[in-house]
């Protein structure tokens, strides 16, 4: 089987240098000219404790990923980077003082020679080789089409190895491998510095070398048309090619045959992580691309100010992605977008928000974001993303881009950002159009979380929070606080009487994509979460995949930037500082740290790269917390804190089956609880005048009388729907009286109450709760059952129910958003005088919205009887004060719930 | 419309607080509606466009509109529609324009009308008209002076009783209701005057109807998809597969609204905010049962 070029690093397994002593951190090479770093390394073998067991050699796939690979290739030849990261100066100082031997050995950073690695490769092959691997050298011939005519615009052979890169598309960085060789002395391929073997370090995207799919990173080019080549003569040889032609390239390729089955394991792991990781690496993932190629989608950044004198074609397009046939059509009608924007603003006096088009049989929604004289346009088909959602998405995109680049203009109007944005929007559209393919498809809960779940959860202004036992939480908080104090003892700048480089504003810790601790203000947390969401970092950490993740970049937090601009009112001024985001991931943990430079610390000059000391301290914090992951896993494995029921249990027919089944753990627990907690029913007639003859029925439908419960619903499931409703209404006598709750609690012993509150959210003798979602905008978090909890409740109906729940939440939430918007407007006082309907505008604010669904099993074969039905509510509740809080719940309709009560129970029960 | 030469049809656009809808009919006439009403949705505006075009067809005939010969003349002819179109722009308490069902009053017996060429309307009482669809004869005068009194005079008293909306004894919390029979394409609706016991903030009577209309549009476009809905699928209908929505409610500061469906009937209720939320469902079930069963709608 031929591997795609980008996969090559899997063969090029090498020992992890990340934790060996006295080595510069392996990510150092990946730091870009502007100081940014996005380094992702995957641990292949999930079983082996890579980090603790440092002495052994493990198979690690080393991958260096750059956000702007295309740009690097151009830039790489221009200039060597001028800056020398300050951390290096720092480590030099340390080295001189011979302070560097570190207790753990992990902080060891030999001062590297300040060598600015020309960032040439996309994916670098580690030339060091893994122990316990047999290496065979093989030769292969690859035919490549080259066209020297296309080179006219480039500077030709001005730079070393320029032709190899521009003509063929092979990236070779001589100095890099030389340096490696010097350091590790292992690279057998080095013959001499002057006559270095031409190892493929990277492939230029879209180049002919890339297109063949046969050239692997790590291969060494030894001959061109049977002429032996090395670094010395390659340029001369290539410059002899006069016309477009096919050339035969001969490569020496290393075939690794790993011992044991790691190869096989890798394959398995690969299939599940393929898509997301491939995308993150920025590989040319044709499979994923093809899948969405036919779907019309586009993002464009247009300028409204046109220079009429130099009228060029498409000059109004400042940025555009993707360039495919389906999007071509959307691009060609950009005139409509511009005209609409202009006309509607003239007519209505407000910016255009969205429009709908009918394009080749599909409804395409287009959303707009207008800022000064620029217009950002995002278009997606309505079947992929509902309009209300798309509007949230563009807001998130804008916020993330501003977080990363300060303003839309600086993001879109700089040439070197183009490839970064391409990557950003590639991820964006993949997430929007086929979110399920991106997430791991091996996990059993995957089918519960379909497109709508992803759409909903991705658009919430918050992060999924995992509640933890108090003592675990304490431990985490302590560790984070220690880090934030930045007291690095002899490693700290204070020790050398230097001014601090950075102040740590706060940090937040994720485990498997769940937020488990946060020491950041809400706005900053959301900014970071959005960044993580757009780069799919959270699902990435959900699987055990991260060998090491280091992200460093300058950021522009919304919150701090805003205060800078309008601070005079409060008297407090945010310092004129620069902010940096550092994300370090190890295994399932991901720790995000927000740093400030220039406030009380020294000013940041130029584009500082990541500082080894800070990276190592963050890493050390995670390592310190390694021990708690068993506690967290335990929490993830245990059933949900508010107990959940499975929808299938409530089908009359399935009850018989259920009885014969050995009691499922959750159900038995459920039955126990319903025994301990006395039934909180209070006989209360509904609306005396209008209620029907209330008739006492057995209050229990599952817990107590599973055998008798079978007959009733079948009777009522007859043809006359009114009869069903009638019956249901009659059962309403188990209605909880919210005003009597006090009495109820008095009656229960204190312990029972506690138990009751802890495990059951719904009222009534049975647990009727199917699913919930609580969004606390105050903290910027939301709480929902974990994937694992949902996976416990397998069934045929339940997954559908959850899917429907999420779809409903989307629609309910869009109504709530209107309310929030109106409320905001009202507070701002806009339009208070002009609208005559002002009086009812606040009467119009929707606070609660519920839908009752009826469902029946899909595969009902018995034709004599109608299929059994189950009815359930999906209810959303919005609290505007003191801070907006949203709450969605899905429960069986046998008990009437008071949504407010449920919401309070949930948010108070979960001590955040 | 622009974009048509590129095979792209623009259907809708939205700004903060304003919606615009385009629709081309028979490739000859394009109607554009712009609305900044609070309760406007794509569903209501789409229905409005349908209605306006239907008005034009009613007055001018489809042939005239599909093959326009003289635009200036057509413009002149269209003036005849203005009044009718205005009535759709100011719907008041009526809902037929939205539901596309015949609005009825509760009467003990109903008569079947014959097939028609003329539409004649006569006001019997304020708010109560009879519509006659009849052929070329008899003459308008004959109908007005002879036939109408002959048939309707004996029924004037019972009709007078029907004309008052609160002919149905309902819970005092009910502000307005709309009942639709989809099989027979009939609807029954009323906005009920509030009793004196009402407290707190309440919707003015006039806005009850518009709130109910907005609620109807929300529910029908999201949860109770009805056959032959003219709305392009701008929003995704919910509850696919074997999960179908039965009831739905909305609670806001000034009102509560509840919708229930029991084929072929759909009931939409607007209730006072004092009515407890948990009581909405039994109340709606009861009213539906009463109207369909006892009142024999």
From TrEMBL, chain A:
Subcellular location: Cell surface; Cytoplasm, Cytoskeleton, Cilium basal body
Region entry Disordered, spans: 1-23, 98-127, 697-741
Biased composition (Low complexity): 11-20
Domain PDZ: 178-253
Predominant location category: other
Record has Cytoplasm as a keyword: yes
This protein's record includes keyword Cytoplasm: yes
Amino acid composition bias (Polar residues), ranges on this chain: 110-127
Any one Gene Ontology cellular component term annotated for this protein: cilium
Alphabetical keyword list: Cilium biogenesis/degradation, Cytoplasm, Developmental protein
Pfam families, per the entry: Intu_longin_1, Intu_longin_2, Intu_longin_3
Basic and acidic residues biased stretches: 1-10
InterPro entries per UniProt: CCZ1/INTU/HSP4_longin_1, CCZ1/INTU/HSP4_longin_3, CCZ1/INTU_longin_2, INTU, PDZ, PDZ_sf
SUPFAM superfamilies linked: PDZ domain-like (SSF50156)
GO biological process, one term: vesicle-mediated transport
Domain of life: Eukaryota
Family: Belongs to the inturned family.
Annotated protein name in UniProt: Protein inturned
Name of the gene this protein is made from: INTU
Automatic annotation (TrEMBL), chain B:
A Pfam match: Fuz_longin_3
Protein name in UniProt: Protein fuzzy homolog
FUZ/MON1/HPS1 first Longin domain span: 1-87
PANTHER family documented for this protein: INTRACELLULAR TRAFFIC PROTEIN-RELATED, PROTEIN FUZZY HOMOLOG
Secretion signal, residue range per the UniProt entry: none
InterPro entries per UniProt: FUZ/MON1/HPS1_longin_1, FUZ/MON1/HPS1_longin_3, Fuzzy
Biological processes per GO annotation: non-motile cilium assembly; vesicle-mediated transport
Gene: FUZ
Residues that span the membrane, as ranges: none
FUZ/MON1/HPS1 third Longin domain boundaries: 173-291
